[in-house]
Each structure stands twice: as C-alpha cells, then as structure tokens.
Design goal:
Mean pLDDT of chain B: 86
Strand content of chain B: 15-25%
Number of strands of chain B: 4
Shape of chain B: rod-shaped
Distance between the termini of chain B: 75 Å
Number of helices of chain A: 2
Oligomer: heterodimer
Strand order of the largest sheet of chain B: 1-2-3-4
Radius of gyration of chain B: 33 Å
Order of helices and strands of chain A: HHEEEEE
Radius of gyration of chain A: 28 Å
Largest interface: A-B, 46 and 43 residues
Structural class of chain A: alpha+beta
Number of strands of chain A: 5
Helix content of chain A: 40-55%
Low-confidence stretches of chain B: none
Distance between the termini of chain A: 101 Å
Chain lengths: 133, 144
Amino acid sequence: MKPLRNGRMLMIELMIIILFFSLSSVTVVRLFAAASQLSRQSTVSTTLLQTAQSWADLLQAEDDFQAFLQKNGWDEEGDAMSLSVDGGLLKLTGLTIQNGTGGRLIACTLAAFVDEQEMFTLPIVRYAPEDLP
Amino acid sequence: MRIKQEYRLGVGISAMLLIFVMISIVTLGVLSFLSARADKALTDKSVLMVQAYYAASADAQHRLFTLDNDLQAITSEQELEDYAKANALTYENNTLRFTVDVGGGRVLLVAVQLDERFQMRKISQYSMENQTDWTPALPEFPIF
C-alpha cells in the first residue's frame, strides 16, 4: 500500500503546483494585456494630439479651411473632413463662418477618434480681420 | 537493517525554481502595468492642457471679433474707456488688453493696438504666461 500512498502524495503535490502556475499565468497574462492596451492607448493618443495640434496651428493661419485641407490630402465626407493618422482618425466638423463689420470669424471643431471612439476635441477659431495684416 | 523510507509533502528544486520565475514575471507584469498607467495619466493630463489652451484661444478669438465689431461704433476716448471698463478690458497707451484663463495657473494675454480713430490696428500680443511661479518643494537639507 505504501507506493500507492506515495504516488497519491506526488499527484497532490503536482496538482497544487499546476494550480498555482495556472493562476499565476492568468494573472500575468491579464496584467500584460492591460499594460499593453494602456500603452497602446497612450501612444495613439499622443500621436493624435501632436498631429491635431499641428493641424490646428496651421489652420489658425488660413482663411479658407476647406480649401487648405483639401489641398493637403484630407478626405471630404459630407460636411466633415477627415484624415487617417497612425491608429486613429482626425475629423473636422462644424465649420461655420460668421461675418462681422470688421472681419470674419471662422470656427470649427477638430476631433480625434480611435476605433470609432472619440478621444478628444479641439475647438479651432480664427478671427480674420479684413484690413489687418 | 532496513531503513524506513518516509514520504513528506515538500517542493522540489525544480518547483522552487519555477515558483521563483513566476514571482519574477508577476513582479515584471505589475511594474509594466504601473508604468503604462503612469504614461496614460500623463498623456491624459497633456490632452487636457492642450484642450484648455485651444478653448481659451477660441474664447480670445471670439472676444476679438466682438471687440472689432464694437469698436466701429466708438468715436471718442471717453467712450472707449467706458467700453473697456464695462467689458473687463484695460486701456492704456492706445492699447486694449484682456486676459483669458487657460487653467493650471496660466493665462492667455491679448493686446490690441488701436489707431487714431480707435479702430484695431494690429494684435500686438497673443501669448500665454504663468500667473504663479513654480517653486519646488525642497527637502529640509538640500543636497544640491
């Protein structure tokens, strides 16, 4: 009966180790997956932010937003315009032009999307006086 | 003499090695997760700061639009001073100034130079400044 008892103990020991390993593996895999997803999100977010800022600054020096964006490779989608950036999409919407006595106020919103989910929006407004340099 | 063999529940060297490896991997995973979370928090903060700047800039552009329209109706310095007082502007040396709060202790300073007919000549300042100086919390006995 002794070898059988020893065999059982070995089996229990092995089972405890396998259980410990499987639990640890699940934890580790989940941790790495979460870390990877967070890292990817922040990378894409940073890239989109820098690109959006760059376009926003360029637009603030332009009088005709639509013509400028069309010339620089943006796609027209109805009232909106969009540009694919690494891992995301920039969308320019709500372009309005308000005429005043001294100039024009051009306003729009630049939004950044990742997997159809909105990450952030930047309001872009430019006042273009008629007689100012 | 017969030696009595007794089996004890214990861990072998290979199991101990594997446990050590697993603990190391878990530690690495936790550290990489914490690092990624800190990066994400920093990115989110950066996004908020940039958004706050563009919101303030949009507000400033709206105010410039309104200001330029309103200045068309102003014909005397007294009218201009009254207008400035009523609209939280400062008028000094033929220049109208206003600030827009950007958040995080920052303000957007805008100055508009006027001509002799009290109309907008040029935007002489459009810059962001800190309202408060940053002073690091130094230890009691500075080491540098």
